[in-house]
Structure formats: structure tokens, C-alpha cells
Amino acid sequence: MKKIGLAWQIFIGLVLGIIVGAIFFGSPQVVNYLQPIGDIFLRLIKMIVVPIVISSIVVAVAGVGDIKQLGKIGGKTILYFEVITTIAIIIGLVAANLFQPGTGVEMDRLNKTDINSYVDTAEQQEDHSLVETFVNIVPTNPIAALAEGDMLAIIFFALVLGLGINAIGEKGKPVLAFFQGTADAMFYVTNQIMKLAPFGVFALIGVTVSKFGIESLIPLGKLVLSVYGTMIFFILVVLGLVAKLVGFNIFKLIKTLKEELILAYSTASSEAVLPKVMEKMEKIGVPKHIASFVIPTGYSFNLDGSTLYQALAAVFIAQMYGIDMSIADQVSLMLVLMVTSKGIAGVPGVSFVVLLATLGTVGIPVEGLAFIAGIDRILDMARTAVNVVGNSLATIVIAKWEGKFNPNHTEQIAENIG
């Protein structure tokens, strides 16, 4: 009898979780039983993310050692991220104007959710300029950055450490061996944790459906359909075109990442798949130093799904309140989002925080977010999956740009991943 693959196991967990959540809708017992299982799974994943990122980058950079080449890759990566996220914002705005998801919404039918938990973070974010984002990349205390999971600061420290190890030659070899051993051990641990993914997905999706139910989607159904439809269009058309331009097939990428995409969608957590995505990108031909740098950086600078959603949701709220946004207003919204959406990937409810920090600056009532907070988890699942595809494709684009993409360069990794 053929063993069921992990992707199918995760999918079965997803379906069973939806069924259990729907049957026990509104039952606090389901949340009490399932939430701890989901939380343990996510904690296990988050536990390994920082060691994998720092060890992978140190090993990759120490192996390359050319600071000019790394600077070139970094510049191209940031440029690519900026172009793609700007396109995502524009598509979100176009979709909102085309589908008009906020018109005709009866606000008295919507459940209003408390958004105070996000307000303080959003107020801090409003004072958080792009210059500050770049200043904060340099950690004053690398140990504190590791403890807080500050990804940009961790990447910077790992880059500097990798260059230092390379520069001291023979003396650096024991340190390099330590980080190589750490990376190998953590990837092994990742593969073991992934065996628990079906249970984690079952628990997390069960909690989501039992809390919100299917009925909560009906008044906001037009928003959900608009978001999901636009996300699918963005992946297949925009990212598909980018993939074609660099000689790659977007469907091949989706097939390669099928397990990670189901997991990212179910858990609404990009971190849950970061280690495996880095491994898979190496498998299909991206050099280790590019995959190790581009993917973690993308988690702060290339959240395609999140920026697309933020643009669409902002116009949705304006439409809901009957506010007519001119082209100038929407251009202003786009420019604000280009700044506020960068560098805060580690903030819980990041898209909500960005919207709270953005709406007031373009004259849209912040209170409108309370009406969509109840279904934010459903929307978060879609934008997380888009973020994963966008960041994975970025590694291929940069590798091809650098002339370093080689589908046969990691046959051993392919065997290990299986």
C-alpha cells in the first residue's frame, strides 16, 4: 500500500478541521482542546526559525566571501521587492475599484470586533519611518535581536559574521563547521516537526471555523471573494509573467511548494514554512547563499499578499462609509503603504497594524477595521500563501539575474528532501 504523502496528510487535516469546527461551531470546549495543539505546533516551528536563518546565512556568506557580490545581490533583491510590492498595491487598488466590495454593505449586519489590542502597535508604527527601518537593521545587541526574533537585525548580524569568518581563513574553519553542523541539525529537526503538521493544521483550522463559523462570511462575502480572486490573479498572471520572463514555470513552483502552501494557508504563518521553503529553493537550483539571504529578507520587504490586501481593504472601508476616494487619494494611499508595509513582519497581525497606521493618514475612518477583524483570519490565510509564492519566486529571479541558477547543482539535497 502506497504511503500518503505529507501534502495529502496536511490537506486531510485541513478538511477534518473544517468539519469539526463547523459541527462544534460556538463551542468553547473545541477551542480549549484544539488551541493548545495548534499553539505547540507553531511554537515548535518558531523555535527553529532563528537558528536556521542565522546558521544558513553564516555558512552561505562565509562560502561566498565576496562582499561586492553580496552587495550586488542585496541591491538587486531590494529593487525587485520594491517593484513587485508596488505592483501588488496597484492591483489591490484596481480590484477594489473594479469589484466595489464595500458598496451596499449593511453595517448594522456586521459584527464589530474590538481592535484596541492593535492600536498601540499601530501608533508606534506611524512614527516608524523608512529611514528608521534601515537604522534598526543594525542591532545594538545581536543577542537581544535573536531573542526578539528581529529578522532584519538577525540577517545583518549573520552577514557580518559570515564575512568575518571568511576573512580570517583557517582560523574561521572551526566556527564555520559549528554553523554548518547547526544548520544540518536544524533541517533534520524541521523534517521531524513537519510530520506533526497535519495535527497542527487540523487544530488551527478547527479553532478558526468553530470561532467564526461559515455565517460570519456572508455579509462580507464580496470582500472575501474579491480578496481571494485578486490573490489568485496576482499569482497566476503577475507572478506567472515574472516567472516566464526569467524562464521558469509558475505552476512548477506551486507544485514544488504544495506542502508548504497548504501549511502556510492553514496556519496563516509564513514562519511555519520558512525552513522548508529555503530547502526546496535549493533543491530546484537556487544557490544556498541567495536562498538564505533573499527569503528571510523577503519576510520584511516582500509581503506581496499583505500589501495587495492592505490596498484593497483600505478602499473597501472607504466604500463602506460612502467615502469617494479620488485618484490623487489612492495614489497617496499607495505611497503611504509603500513605506508603512516595510520592515514589520515580526509584528502580530501585521496587516491590521499597517492598515491602522495608514487609514488615518488618508482620511478613512480607522473604526471600519473593526467590521472586518472578525474574518481577518480567513483573509490572512490567503495573503500568507501569496507571500510564500512571492518570496520563493524572488530567489529564482535573483539567481537567474546573477546567472547562478542551476537545477542540477544540488542533487544531494533533492535526495534528502524526497
Automatic annotation (TrEMBL):
<dbReference type="GO" id="GO:0006835">
    <property type="term" value="P:dicarboxylic acid transport"/>
</dbReference>
<feature type="transmembrane region" description="Helical">
    <location>
        <begin position="40"/>
        <end position="65"/>
    </location>
</feature>
<feature type="transmembrane region" description="Helical">
    <location>
        <begin position="151"/>
        <end position="169"/>
    </location>
</feature>
<feature type="transmembrane region" description="Helical">
    <location>
        <begin position="7"/>
        <end position="28"/>
    </location>
</feature>
<keyword id="KW-1003">Cell membrane</keyword>
<feature type="transmembrane region" description="Helical">
    <location>
        <begin position="226"/>
        <end position="251"/>
    </location>
</feature>
<keyword id="KW-1133">Transmembrane helix</keyword>
<feature type="transmembrane region" description="Helical">
    <location>
        <begin position="196"/>
        <end position="214"/>
    </location>
</feature>
<dbReference type="InterPro" id="IPR001991">
    <property type="entry name" value="Na-dicarboxylate_symporter"/>
</dbReference>
<dbReference type="InterPro" id="IPR018107">
    <property type="entry name" value="Na-dicarboxylate_symporter_CS"/>
</dbReference>
<keyword id="KW-0813">Transport</keyword>
<dbReference type="GO" id="GO:0005886">
    <property type="term" value="C:plasma membrane"/>
</dbReference>
<protein>
    <submittedName>
        <fullName>Cation:dicarboxylase symporter family transporter</fullName>
    </submittedName>
</protein>
<keyword id="KW-0812">Transmembrane</keyword>
<feature type="transmembrane region" description="Helical">
    <location>
        <begin position="77"/>
        <end position="99"/>
    </location>
</feature>
<dbReference type="Pfam" id="PF00375">
    <property type="entry name" value="SDF"/>
</dbReference>
<feature type="transmembrane region" description="Helical">
    <location>
        <begin position="308"/>
        <end position="328"/>
    </location>
</feature>
<dbReference type="GO" id="GO:0015293">
    <property type="term" value="F:symporter activity"/>
</dbReference>
<keyword id="KW-0769">Symport</keyword>
<dbReference type="InterPro" id="IPR036458">
    <property type="entry name" value="Na:dicarbo_symporter_sf"/>
</dbReference>
<feature type="transmembrane region" description="Helical">
    <location>
        <begin position="348"/>
        <end position="373"/>
    </location>
</feature>
<keyword id="KW-0472">Membrane</keyword>
